[in-house]
Amino acid sequence: MPSPTPGGDEGKSQSSTFRPQFSLPKSVYIHIPFCRHRCGYCNFTLVAGRDYLIDRFLNALEIEIGWLDKNYLIDTLFLGGGTPSHLNPQQLGRLAKIINSRFNWSSNAEITAECNPNDLDSDRLHALKDLRVNRISLGVQSLNKAKLKRLERDHCETDVRRAISHIKNCGFDVSLDMIFAAPQETLVQWKTDLNQAISLEPDHLSTYELTYEKGTQFWNRLNQGTLREAEEDLRAEMYSHTIDRLQQVDMNQYEVSSFSKTDKNCRHNLAYWQGDPFFAFGPGAARFVDGIRETNHRSTTHYLNLVHSGESPVADREHLPPEAAARERLAIGLRMIKGVDEVQFLKRTSHSVKSILRGLEQRLMDNQLLEHEDGHFRLTNRGIMLCDWIAGEIVNLSSKEPT
Ligand code: SF4
Question: Among 108, 112, 115, 111, which residue's Cα sits nearest to residue 85?
Answer without folding.
Answer: 115
